[in-house]
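Two records follow; treat each independently.
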Amino acid sequence: MTYKAWVAKAAKQPLELETVDLGPLWTEDIEVAVEHCGLCHSDLSIWNNEWGISQYPAILGHEVVGRITAVGPNAKGLAVGQRVGVGWNSGSCMHCHQCMSGSHHLCPQVQPTIVGHRGGFASHIRAHWAWAIPLPENLNFAEVGPLLCGGITVFAPLAMFAKPTDRVGIIGIGGLGHMAVKFAAASGCHVTAFTSSENKFEDARRFGANQVVSSKDTAALSNLGGSFNLLISTVNVTLDWDAIIGMLAPNGRLHIVGAVLEPIPVAAFSLIMQQRSISGSPTGSPEAIATMLDFAARHNIAPQTEHFPMSKINEAFARLQSGEVHYRIVLDADF
């Protein structure tokens, strides 16, 4: 079967609309007609080959919402016509220790949707059945896309490490951080938002933050020393790591989900004497994504988005690269 897709021929080159041959459907795969697909900063990073793992030609897009159009003979639990989401990963081996214990996203053979695989800036996408997540009916499907990557990325550490009684800090109020604030507030935590942009203070409060602090205010950071049970860093820039770690309470944790490319220097005694931790995580397993979607539906959580028709994809990339998006972009299929 052939389908239409927006293709990146090389790093930083404008995407071009092409006809692509998908070949036969694998026995455990499903095929989805794309309705909406979020444009994530990770798409920009792969398009620019910032991480050195890009493969061209590339079909990007990994926050896919659409209806199933075909089901392989060995696919389980899904049916043609069902609406599903496909996120950062579209397959895993299904037999290793990680997959068999429910951590499919940590599989050594996990298949990223946009590296070595055709992504969702296209009329159709394919994925292993386990990675096509049925969507709760009471979600606004046009807004779901960013939850499938950015949403699970910030929901996962909250689910793993936060209690409703905890004081949680979210560093960076952008595409990831604004969803983190919403999830943390809905979880019952006391939420502090850290941002370098004063024009985001009111937004952060609207998203559910109890307190908003300028990340450039060193005195304010110092006054918060020993305060937080959990700090989630969503930014991809170097921070004053000593000051950040100093804000952790005893047994506190700094969790990294923003892909900062420089090493993070750590003074051992700042961890040892207060029994603090530093950790990180990628997205989440299929079951974790399904749990996150149920939580979002229950608490009416959705990202704040800007919509473009997919035919304006190059304009959407330019908008994302400008850093002015509030707060996620969704492309609506218009093939």
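The next record belongs to a different protein.
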Amino acid sequence: EIDGNHPNASCAINGAIDGNTCAFPDGMIERHDDCIIVAGANTTGRGGSSKFAGRMKQDAAFLNRWAMLEWNHDDNLETAMAGDDQIATEWLKIVRGYRKAAKAERIEGVEITSRSTLDGIAMLRAGVGEDMAIAATIRKGLADSSWDRLAKTAGGYLRAANA
């Protein structure tokens, strides 16, 4: 999550991105021919947003060194990570129902990611009840009024998925 770095720290790797050497505490190190530098971010590096308030505005020279790709959610990857047992299959339906509802309702402050999927499955496999797993991995303290709206809409999607 490179956009969480202080801009001065990010600029310290400009030479590694562009050049053949990089400064480390133990000296200058030459870049290996097979070296590829990849970074992830929650923003475009131009500062925080309502979702990612703690993100730092990065230096233009640093940002200019990157090819930026948008990486959308991948249902196939999420399914593969979750596994194919009954707990995973049923939990994926729940998470995707709530995710679809959150998008439809445009509820601010809801992030239902693959982390919600994997954490929920781990909780269920450990014996935690479904309601608690939903509260811990999907609701995450969302205000009652928003949660009620989200849960009602998700209920419709879940009924359709189980039909």
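Discussion point: The mean pLDDT is 90. How would you locate this feature using only the token line?
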